[in-house]
Amino acid sequence: MSRSWSQRSGRRPYPPRPRGPWRRFFDYALAILFLGLMALIVARFDRVSTRQENGTAIVNDGDTITLGKERIRLRGIDAPEYSQLCRKDGVDYPAGGCRDRRW
Fold first, then answer.
1. How many CB atoms lie within 10 A of CB 57?
2. Which residues are within 8 A (CB) of 61 and not within 5 positions of it... i.e. 6 or more apart?
């Protein structure tokens, strides 16, 4: 019994035609062109995401930095704000800074 669903055999009635040298050259050239295009796209995305700034860095909160006169918020970080209060067992305590709390 055959393992396939089809009653036909999986073989072709004739052998595949060998590819000529121009066809292989075209295939290789197309692959190199595609990989080069992908490398240019990746390089472009990398250049867009980087930026250099100068100045004194001051950390305001867990997710905010002031660099010179520019305020920068970090994405993807859920940090407490400096003046945020949290409550545990009915007692408020500062979540953003450890001013008077002993650890």
1. 10
2. 79, 80, 81, 82, 96
